[in-house]
Please model this.
Amino acid sequence: MSLEFTATVADRGLEVAFEVATGETLALLGPNGAGKSTVLSVIAGLLRPDTGRVVLDDRTLVATDERVDLAPHLREVALLAQEPLLFPHLSVRENVAFGPRSRGRSRTEARAAADAWLDRVGAAELGDRKPGEVSGGQAQRIAVARALAAEPHLLLLDEPMAALDVAVTPALRQTLRQVLADRTTVLVTHDVLDALLLADRVLVIDEGRVVEEGRSGEVLAQPRSAFAARLAGLNLLHGTWRGDHAVLPDGSQVHGIVAGPEPAVGDLVVATFRPHAVAVYLERPVGSPRNVFATTIDDLEPLGDLIRVRAGQLSADVTAHSVAALDLVLGTAAQLTVKATEVAIYRL
Model:
């Protein structure tokens, strides 16, 4: 086991314990104030727990009963937050080389390591620029390279894509997916796709306690906690890729737009779409929608000016007028439709 974590922080109401295997990525999910960032602060040495023990690769970082508390710079842990926090006076290459230089490597070795990591995150051409001359998405890629160039034993990611424009998020998510494949990582996120595509396991924290944990796909497909259920409000269907569409376990097809690498035939994929993109009919419609799901209404939940219609695995947000016009009640047989242009399909 790479990371063993047990800690209580009384003034923040935190009492959490978990383990992370070597090379595994664990996603911490939960509402604001649940304690996720507190966990990262304890691991990184930015906050001392009231009681607890943190062990990384058989090195004790914190042990309150033994009065052990290693300084942050001795922990061999890298923390990447929402803001890249690059040194503005250094070039991009010098920013990435900072970690290797701090570990005693020569200037030549550090620059070579920096160039290698910049190339790996798709930012090789930015080495001579200053941080003020790159975009937000590029700066966060550079921050990833800087964190990994320091060769940490553990990488901590605190919502690294939260401050990015939605247009550049998929590219950075793909970069992280590649570089995290064999690295021990703890990831804090609110995004269901981050948890699904980047993490091996999910730990749901609410009010400072672990309320759910398990394999990412299992937790998000069949959530047992209130927060995981709300998070999974994004319609999410698992299937198998057949070349130009996905086939679900019940045999139905889902058409959409592939996001990221093209899946190979037979690959497991996930199709996601927002509830507001789903329309509800009583009869199977004709025309443009390519995805039609025959189902039965399970629940009608008021959401401000809208009503969330729940039917099996799917949710649709429609107006109260539409609910009344269709006379939707529990048990109503319905056809839920979504256009292919609204569906994103990701390879698992």
User: Anything to note?
Assistant: The mean pLDDT is 89. The chain has nine helices and 23 strands.
